[in-house]
Amino acid sequence: xxxxxxxxxALLAIVSAISAHSxxxxxxxxxxxxxxxxxxxxxxxxxxxxxxxxxDVDRAGGRMAISNEGPFDGSYSLKSNYVPGQQDAxxxxxSLGATPVAARRYTDKKFDELYWRFYMKTSSNWIGxxxxxxxxxxxxxxxxxxxxxxxxxEDGPDSLGMGLDPVSGVKGSTVVTTKYNDFSNLxxxxxxxxxxxxxxxxxxxxxxxxxxxxxxxxxGQSDGVMSFSVNGTPQATASNLNFRGSYTGYGINAILLExxxxxxxxxxxxxxxxxxxxxxxxxxxxxxxxxxxPNAPTNVRVE
Length: 303
Prior knowledge:
This protein is mainly beta. The protein has a single domain, classed as Sandwich (Jelly Rolls), CATH 2.60.120. It contains three helices and 18 strands. The strands form three sheets. Strands 1, 3, 4, 6, 14, 15, 16 and 18 form an eight-stranded antiparallel beta sheet that branches. Strands 2, 5, 7, 8, 9, 12, 13 and 17 form an eight-stranded antiparallel beta sheet that branches. The chain has a two-stranded antiparallel ribbon with strand order 10-11. Strand 14 and strand 15 form a beta hairpin. The longest helix has 23 residues.
């Protein structure tokens, strides 16, 4: 009897351990060792860590917070609650590399090319265009002036997809912007839309893998590139870009996830979620393409 009890206890311990791993393990666990090219990985498992990890956090009056409603992995994701009449549902800004704005990590490096990937889904009742999604920035001054911006956001107000919108804030070697989103001094380099209808009916409530590449031009040349893929499938590329003229003061030093939905606000109560946010110096790919997460065994019988 004692032997049988000990055997059953051991099996239960194994089941418990595997179940706990399946419920709480995330792609970001030990990512520095597993993925030397990754500069950042966040699966949004802690509310307090958001303020510690990001230099600017807009919680939109509490409408952006972590949520346990069906995360991609781990126990939580980052949720933006949209409500009618409210234009914004929050944003987070990650600092990396040499920067004049809130230096945090890798401050001895200038990044001319970065990749970032995240998972995103909408609530099952989602309608309309979400507008803003993410952007990479070259901050060039403590006043938040921008030498270059690489947006991934709406493909158009009457569509339900996403598009690239690269921007320069430089003339020759001089940064001509004087503040954040200095539209009167920005040069728009051309839109490139992708076919995937992120906000269409067929994709509601589904986690979608989105990866963006931003490569600054060689100073003095027009060879910059921006591209994005969805679930591993290329969507759009903008090439021959003159992001920064011959300016070399800073490289890409901020990545944003954002939830501004436009001046008229959301059409109804609905939500959008982010999870597994990765920034890397090399292509990332979608999680679990070549590996399987462990599941608890189903054929264990306690006697």
